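Project standup — Tuesday

K.O.: blocked on the structure for the chain from last sprint. Re-posting the sequence here as requested.
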Amino acid sequence: MTRLRLRPRQSLVCRQAVELVTDYLEGALSQTQRRRFEAHLTRCPDCPEYLAQMRAVITLAGSITPDDMTPRMRGEFIRLYRRWRADEAHDSL
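H.V.: unblocked you, prediction finished:
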């Protein structure tokens, strides 16, 4: 996972906030990064909605069972996972 480096006392822009959403939801931001992220959310009209959408996606994805998917969907997820694993192995070389 690539960590975004932030300069102290510099406001976040939306692009930076979007890059930090996953770490924020996982509780992986430093206290300073978390405060800056949350300060951005109070000023931005769009990022709070994006954060809410990401939470909804995580909730929905966590409720899917194999029985909810067609064989074609399962096959596509398996192909995507294998491609992702191959890319990860290639990137670590």
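K.O.: great, moving the ticket to review. Helices lie at 14-25, 31-43, 47-63, 71-91. The radius of gyration is 17 Å.
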